[in-house]
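Lab channel / #folding
Pinned by the channel admin:
"Please post every new chain as: sequence first, then the structure tokens as a reply. Keep commentary short and put observations after the output so the thread stays searchable."

First post following the new format, from NK:
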Amino acid sequence: MSTISSASWSPAPSPAVGAVAGDGQDPLSLHVELALSAATPDRRVLERRRETRHPFPYPIHLTPVDDEGRPQLADAITVLGKHLSNHGLDFYHREPLAWRYAVASISGGEHRWLGFLMELTWCRFGQHGWYDNGGRFLSVTQSPLTLARLA
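Reply from TO:
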């Protein structure tokens, strides 16, 4: 495995942080702006949602629910939240999920879990090899993480 040395990636002296390029812009600031604009492209489509979505980049524990409404604790996974609203959430996961219903367990503070029964309604392959998933909340329920702690 090769390593990166300063000679291999910087043949010419790099400008100092805050230095201004010939076009009047700091090269580091320019690269950060390019990275941010690539991550959040312009939205030319009118937002069709009626409610506010809040960024929610935190772990969410998902526990699938069987046809009789029983949580399947052995199949629980952790996903990375994307947005949270009053009626649902969306999140990232490395694989598509085959479940239709799950309990989303979200931290409610120290030693407390909030449980939401949800219907998973969509999944699409996104950037960077992750799947973007989402669904709507059906009801508030007891989190399987709370049940596991009581057992």
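NK: The longest strand covers residues 113-125.
TO: also worth noting, The beta strands are 54-55, 59-64, 77-85, 88-93, 101-107, 113-125, 131-141.
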